[in-house]
């Protein structure tokens, strides 16, 4: 009996809190169209807190914050799903940051929460991996998406002499970037006469885990005896695949290219059996921070054609669909591999 | 009188309730933004789908069974909902189909456990992988985003004029029903009997398999409802929807004082445990504690809770036996 009464009490209290909470801070949900007068706190919401790519973006953002003021606030989800990011978006809203920079785990998972943030007057931009375009104002992209797919394909063509079977070892089945690149690769394979002798035999998934990538790379080599190369468009996958195939002695006969931090695969790049498409990730962090501050202080309007300055990175122009591009990606070769800090 | 009071104070429900109060007061004092309505709404909404999974799981574990495929059923039902919506079916029909899919999944578990006689841990371990695999087979990589605005509102807005999120309403309706079933009906008492000793229950005339069958089907149905909420909350039907939710749900059930061996545990305790986990996660979230450390904290809470009950029961038993030297010591209830 007592027990039930206690629960009834608790429920009543919760309801009371819910209702009184409404009266207390109903004002905060109203949009505050006002511009920030000085540098704001920028919340960085990565796919995974421990991802070295994301911590490098954070370091770049910190560099910029030291120059132009404001603060970087970094959060750390433990699961790479859009749904897991919702709680973090809400956390940043509750802490009243001035801007949110998100790398979307998927397009729509956190979109509704991000829209809430925008209603609360918070600037939202995406970096590295986009979210639904009505949930953010700008998308700071490392390189043109279709350019990356093509570059990886060109790199593979160069490695295997434009002829033979190759496979793709992607990240997860739902990864937005990777799926777009693979689609572009398939389209170009079908249309470009220069690549007519190259055949994409399969797409496998390494699930963003080193051991799974190593295992999949080995089984691809087993399953396709004529395989001459694998494209691994994922930062964790390419080093893992290179390591696994060098252990089995298949690296060399099977060439690798893809996307990964240049420092992770330096020794394999030197051997000439592995190429890599990469860019300066720290610059991406700096650019995103400059864009977030400019938007929050109304120095930039997120419309195509508008320009903003990002310190010594230069001046950038907002493109179609609010996309801002860091710059062309570079093919990492034995000659330039030492230039990359990450 | 003093004895009943002491045994009541030592009961797990009260310890949990005390923990909840302590945590809420501390968090409100220490953590800025914790006591606001905005944080209340978000924290509650965040757990709304997991909370539903807890209800049938508590019944199953009390009946000495388990269903670890609940999150996969939720995921698969979400996928069915998404595909139905994509095919242009009206929302009500699509939700019905999703619930039907969940019920069928539950019935498959039920068949394998009751008719074939396989252990439920193994059966649902298999269907966990089977149903999740089906999500990927049906959807491929791309999530379905054709979710009607009314459903998105349900998953992201609060009841007008309050800070109570819409998506917790199904739980608030179902939780009392589950408590009534367990504590106020004959079938509820039989559920305890099955968990206490399945063979004795059989010889006492309890239709053991019939009740088990029902519990697994209900588990599937409620999991499907959770799947619909996940779709609403995330505005999409993704193949990885509700992934890994079973661990949180099982943690809450054990934390709530349900015995691993079955036959013991009460709904109020489970509900307190749920509030405790919601409050803890919300507090850690606002303190910008990483997702990994949050998981570790919930795990630690579970271990600590078992230690505390164990110790309090021992102290209680020792005190009682000193008072009533020759009277047999009543075994205190608890996990």
Features:
heterodimer; A: 342 residues; alpha/beta; Rossmann fold; 2 domains; six-stranded parallel beta sheet; four-stranded parallel beta sheet; 14 strands; elongated; B: 335 residues; mainly alpha; ABC transporter involved in vitamin B12 uptake, BtuC; 14 helices; 74% helix
Could you provide a short overview of the structure?
By secondary structure, chain A is of the alpha/beta class. Chain A has helices spanning 2-25, 52-68, 82-94, 111-119, 145-160, 176-191, 210-223, 237-248, 266-271, 281-296, and strands at 41-45, 71-74, 99-102, 123-127, 138-141, 164-170, 198-205, 227-232, 255-258, 276-278, 307-309, 315-317, 323-325, 330-332. Chain B has 14 helices and no strands.
Question: How would you portray this structure in words?
Answer:
- The complex is a heterodimer of chains A (342) and B (335).
- By secondary structure, chain A is α/β, with parallel strands linked by helices.
- Chain A folds into two domains: 158 residues, Rossmann fold (3-Layer(aba) Sandwich), CATH 3.40.50; 134 residues, Rossmann fold (3-Layer(aba) Sandwich), CATH 3.40.50.2300.
- In chain A, 42% of the residues lie in helices and 18% in strands.
- Chain A has a six-stranded parallel sheet with strand order 2-1-3-4-5-13, with helices on both faces.
- In chain A, helix 2 crosses helix 10.
- About 5% of the residues of chain A have low confidence.
- By secondary structure, chain B is mostly helical.
- In chain B, 74% of the residues lie in helices and 0% in strands.
- In chain B, helix 3 packs across helix 12 and helix 4 crosses helix 11.
- Chain B is globular and about 75 Å long.
